[in-house]
Amino acid sequence: MILSALLTSVAINLGLCLLFFTLYSILRKQPGNITVYVPRLVAEGKVEEGRQFNLERLLPTAGWVKKAWEPTEEEFLSNSGLDAFVFMRMFVFSLKVFTFGAIIGMFVLIPINYLGSQLTDDSDFQHKSLDSFSISNVNNGSNRLWIHFSAAYIFTGVVCYFLYYEYQYISSKRIACFYSSEPQPHQFTVLVRGIPIPPGGTCADAVQSFFTEYHPSTYLSHSVVRRSHKLHNLITDAEKLYKKLTNLKQKKDAPKRQTREGCMGLFGPKVDILDHYERKLGNIEDNVRMEQSSLASKEVPAAFVSFKTRFGAAIALHIQEGVDPTEWITEEAPEPHDVYWPFFTVSFLKRWISKLVVFVAYISLTIVFLIPVAIVQGLTHLDQLETLFPFLKGILRLSVVSQVITGYLPSLILQLFLSFVPPTMIMLSSLQGYISWSQIQKSACTKVLLFTIWNIFFANVLSGSALYRVNIFLEPKEIPRVLAEAVPSQASFFIAYVVTSGWTAIASELFRLTTLISNFISRTFCSNADNDFEPPSIPYHSEIPRIRLFGLLGVTYFLLAPLILPFLLIYFCLGYIIFRNQFLKVYVPKFETGGEFWPTVHTSTIFSLVLMHVIAIGIFGLKKLPLAAGLTLPLPILTLLFNDYCQKRFRPIFKHFPAECLIKKDRADENEHNMSEFYDKMENAYNDPALMPISYSERSDSHRSPLLYSNQV
Amino acid sequence: MILSALLTSVAINLGLCLLFFTLYSILRKQPGNITVYVPRLVAEGKVEEGRQFNLERLLPTAGWVKKAWEPTEEEFLSNSGLDAFVFMRMFVFSLKVFTFGAIIGMFVLIPINYLGSQLTDDSDFQHKSLDSFSISNVNNGSNRLWIHFSAAYIFTGVVCYFLYYEYQYISSKRIACFYSSEPQPHQFTVLVRGIPIPPGGTCADAVQSFFTEYHPSTYLSHSVVRRSHKLHNLITDAEKLYKKLTNLKQKKDAPKRQTREGCMGLFGPKVDILDHYERKLGNIEDNVRMEQSSLASKEVPAAFVSFKTRFGAAIALHIQEGVDPTEWITEEAPEPHDVYWPFFTVSFLKRWISKLVVFVAYISLTIVFLIPVAIVQGLTHLDQLETLFPFLKGILRLSVVSQVITGYLPSLILQLFLSFVPPTMIMLSSLQGYISWSQIQKSACTKVLLFTIWNIFFANVLSGSALYRVNIFLEPKEIPRVLAEAVPSQASFFIAYVVTSGWTAIASELFRLTTLISNFISRTFCSNADNDFEPPSIPYHSEIPRIRLFGLLGVTYFLLAPLILPFLLIYFCLGYIIFRNQFLKVYVPKFETGGEFWPTVHTSTIFSLVLMHVIAIGIFGLKKLPLAAGLTLPLPILTLLFNDYCQKRFRPIFKHFPAECLIKKDRADENEHNMSEFYDKMENAYNDPALMPISYSERSDSHRSPLLYSNQV
C-alpha cells in the first residue's frame, strides 16, 4: 500500500465521520428519535418527548460533547456501575499508552525509519510505500536499531507501569463499590447443585435439614429450582399475544397517540379478531396455571440458598460441603434477574455433551472463517483479481479504484463478516450451561477475543504466502524468525484496517445507525414497535474484543510500523467521548460483574507486549544485530514475571471478596439497614419468574392468587 | 537377549533371594541384631534384648512370614497409620492387576506370540530370543492381533475398575480415620504468612488483633515464628557434645553394659578431657541462652494460629483473609514435630530464587543422568564393547560371561546409580521452601517418580539408536509410531531390569543390608552409636517411585511382551510380605499425610494405561492392521474421561476435609474430650523447639527456667 492509498482511506473515513457527526448533532434533537438517542433517560423518565418546534433543532451543535465530559468519575460510577467504569478505563488506559507510544513513534522512530535506505523506494513522497516508514527500511546492522531496542524497553516499562496503576486503581474501586453497595440478594446467596434427595423425601426437605444442621447460625432460606422450560415457552406466548391484543385495542378505542403511529392504520384489524385473541389468551393462561400446579413434582436437584450474612454465604461457597464432592456443589449466585433459567432444565450429562459440541463448533467456525480472510487477502493482491476477472482490468487500473479496493474494501468486507461473530459466540456460550447471562457474556467475550486475535491477526499475518506455517508453533525456536518475516509485511493492511473498521465502528456507534434503521423499519411495518421499547445494554462481548484487537495491533506494531499509532490515538479518543455519552444516555447496565472484565484486558495487553518482544527478537536477528536480539530476551521474561506478580497481587480480589471486607460490610449493614425487612424480600428473590401468577385476560381475576411459591412446597 | 540369559539372571536372583531369606531367618533371631530387625518394637519397649542361647536360633525358620499375615487390616491401620496402609494397598492393587494380567498374558498372549513367525528365529527353544514371546513375532496383518486388541480393552476395563474401587476404598478409610482420630493440634491450626506488621507494633499484636476482630468466636491462640537458624545450629552443637560427654562418662564410670561395646575400649579417653568438654558445653549453653533472649526482636512475619474448632480453622484456611492477597496468606499447618523450622529463616525472595535454582538443578541432573544410562546401553551391545576393548574379546565370547553382562550387569549398574537419586531429590526439595518434612518427602517422591519414568523408561527406550528423537514430542501425530518402533526393542532389557533390580531391592529390603553394614561399621568405629538409636521411617520418596516404575513397565508391556508379568507378580508378592513385616516391626510413622500419596499412584497408573494405548495404536499401525489402530483410539479418550471423573469424585477428599466431616467431628469432640485441657496443650504445641530452655551441663541448674515462650512476647 502506498501513502496516497492510505490518505484516500483516511479521507473517506474522516468524511464519513464528519457527515455522521453532523447528522447525529441534528437528529438527536428530533423528538421522534428520542428513544433511539437517549433511551436510557426515557426509560428512567428523565426526558419527556417534546413537541415544540424551534430552528435550533435543525442546526448541528456540539454541546453534547461538552456534556459527555462533565460528570466526574464518581458520578459516572454511581450512575453506570463498575462494569461501565472499567469499560471507560480501558479507553483511558489505551489513550495513555498510545499517547506515549505515538510521541516516541512520530518524533523518534518514524524519522529514523524514513532515513533508512534498505528498501530503495525511489518514488516521490506521495507514492512512497508505507513500508518506508516501517522498521523494514532501516539498514541491516545499522546502529540506529539500538534506538528501536531502547524504545522497546522504555515502552514496555511504561505500559507495565500503566497496567499496574490501572489494576490497583480498579481493584480499589471494586472494593469501594462493594463497601458502598446496598445489600443485594446475590451477595447473601449461593447456588447449590447436586443435592442428594433421600428416597421418599423432597429436595426442599434435604436442603432445609442439611443447612439447618451444618450452618445453623447463618442459614436463612432457600428456593428450589424446578423444570420450568415448558412454562417459560407458554408465558412467552402469552406475553406476545397480550401485547398484540393491547395494541389492537389501542388502535380501535383510543385516538392516535402520535401521528407517526398512524402510517399503517389502513391495515388495522377487524374487531371480531379481538374476541378470538382474548379466547386464545385465556386458554394459554389456563395451560400456564395447570403447568404451574404440576411443577411441584418437577424438582431439579438444585436450589438457591440464602444466608443471614455475606460471610456465611462465603463459608458455604468456599468449603466443600458434603463428603461426596459431586454432591452439594456450591457456586456464586448471580443477581436474581441475571439467572438464565432455561439452563436448569438440562441434565448434567446433557450439559457435558453440549460443552463438547460447543467446543467442536467453535473450532470449526474458527477454521471456516479463514475463507473470508482469504478473500480479503485476495483483494489486496490486485493482480490476482485481474487474472480472475480480465474484463475488470480497465477499471482496476484506475488509481482511485485501486486505492479504494486495496485500502478500504478489504477491511470493510472483513468487518462485515466479523459482525456475525459476536452473536454466534453468544449463541454458543448460552448452550454451554452457564447459569447467568453475565457469565454467558463473559464467556462469549473470551471466545470472540481469541477468535479475533487468531483469525484477524495470526491468520492474516501468516496467510500471506504461508497459511501452512501454522506448524511453526510446534518449533518454538523458529517463532521469532517466522513472525519477524511475516508480520511487518501486513503492517499496511492493519493500518488501513484500523482507519476503516475502527472509525467506521465509531461512526456507527455514534449514530447507532443500525438501531436507527431498525427503528425506522419497525415503525413502518410493525405498528406495535413502541410497546417493545427497552433501552439496550452494552454488548461487552463484541466491544471489548474489538478494543483489545486494536490494543494488540498498537503494541505489536509500535516498533515495526509506528505509523499505526496516531490513527489508534484518534480511534480511542473518539471512542472515549462517544461511549461516555452513550453510557450516560443510552446504555442501561443489565447486570454487574463488578469489573471482572479487567483481568481480560490486563492479560491480553501482556500477551501483546510479549508478542512484540518475540517479533523484536526476530527483527533484530534478521537485521543482523544478534547482540540486540540476545539483549531483548530478558524483556519477555521480565514482563511475564511482572504479570505473575500482578495476578498474585490483584487477581484474587476479582474472584471473591476477602473475609475482612465481607465481615466489615456485614457489620455495617447491621447498623445501617433494616435487615429483617431485607431478609423478607430475599426469601422470594430467587423464585423462578415463571412460577409467579399471571393474569392477562380480563375475565380471570379470580385466578390471580399465586399458585406456587417454590420455597413453600 | 536370549531365553538362557534371562534364565541365568533369574537363577542368580533366585539364589540370592534364597540365600538372603535363609540369612534373614537366622540373623533376625540373634539378640545382638535386635535393633536392626525389629527396631520399632524395641523403641516401643515391646521387646527386650534376650541373652539365652538355644539351637533354634541357628536354624532358618519361616514363622515370621506367617506372623506378617496375621494382623487384620484394621489392626494394621491403627498400628501403622493411613500412609503405611495406603503403601500396602499399592501392593494389593498391583497384585490384583498383575494377577489378572499374568493369567491373560501367560495363557492367551504368549502362546499366540510364540506361534507367530514374523521374526524367523530358527534357534532351539533355549536360545530363542525373548522377542519370540513378544508381539513383534506376530505376523503382520494377522487376525490374531484382534485378540491383542480385545485384551487391551479388557485389561483397561479391569484396571479402571480396580482403580475406582481402590480410590473409593482409600477415601472412605481416610474419612473413617479422621472420624476416629484424637484431637490433634494441626487439625485446629493454620499457618499464616505475610503478616503486615504496623509501624511500631509487633507481629504478635497484629495477629492477635486481626483474628480477634474477624474470627472472634473461634480464635484461640497463636505462636509467632522467629529467626532461629543460628540457635538451631548452637543446639545441635550442644546436643552432639552432650552425647559425647555422656558416652565418655559411661565408659569411665560404669561397668561395660554389653560385651560388644568393649571392642574399642582400648582407645578410651583420658579423664581430663571430660573437664574440657564440660566447660565447652557450658559455654555453648550460655550462648544459647543469650541467643534465645535476643530472639524477641527477630520476628518472622509468620505465625501458627490455632482455633477452637476444626471448622473455624478451615474457614480461615479457605477464605482469603486480608484485602491484599499477598498478606495474611493462610495454609494448612503441619503436625508440630513435622515442621521444618530452618525454612522460616528464608525470606520470600530467597525462597523464590532457591525454587528457580532447584528447578534448574533438577533439569541438569536429569540430563547428566543420561551418561550412566548410555553406559548401560553400551553393555547390552557387546559388539561395541569388543571394539573398544579388543583384549576382552576372548572372555566376552564365553557364553556365561556374555549372559551375565547382558542380562544382569546393566540393570545392576543402573540400580547403583539410581540409589543416589532419592537422597539428592530430598536435598533439592528441602531447599525449596516447604514448611514440613512431609511436604519435602511428597515433593521428592514426585521428583524421583518423574525422573525415574523419564530416565529409565523413555531415555532407555529412545536412546537405542536415537536419543535425538526427543523432538518427536513436538510432533504429536508421530508419537505412536516412534514409540511402537522403539519400545518393543527394549522389552528384554526391562524384563531383566525387573528381575534384577526388583528382586535385588526386595532382597536388600528384606535384610536391610545397608543398615546391617552401617550398623556394623558404627558399632566398630564409633562407640556411641547405640545412643543414637532411632527406628527408621519408611522412605516413601524412594519406594513409591520404584513400585510405580514397575507398575508402568507392567502395564506398558502387558500387550507387547507379557513375559514381564510373572516376574512382576513375584516382585509384588514378595514386596507385600516383606513390607507388611518389617511396617509392623521396623518402620515407625514419623508423620501422617492421611493417605495423600494415593492420588500419585492413581495418576501414574492412568499415565501408563494411556502410554500402553498409544503404543498399541502404533503397533497395530506397524503391523498393517489400521482398523484395529483406529478402533483403539477411543480407549485413551475413555480412560482420560474416567480419570477426570475419578479426580472430580475423590481428589477433593484428599485435599481438605469437607464441612460435614469437620462439624460432625467438632461436635463429637465436645462430648467426648476435655477440650479445655487440649486447648491448654495446643497453646504451646507450635513453639519452636529451639526456644525451649536447655540444660545439659550439671553446674547450670539455676538457668533452667524458660527464658522465652514465643506466644508470651
Automatic annotation (TrEMBL), chains A, B:
This is Uncharacterized protein. It comes from Trifolium pratense (Red clover).
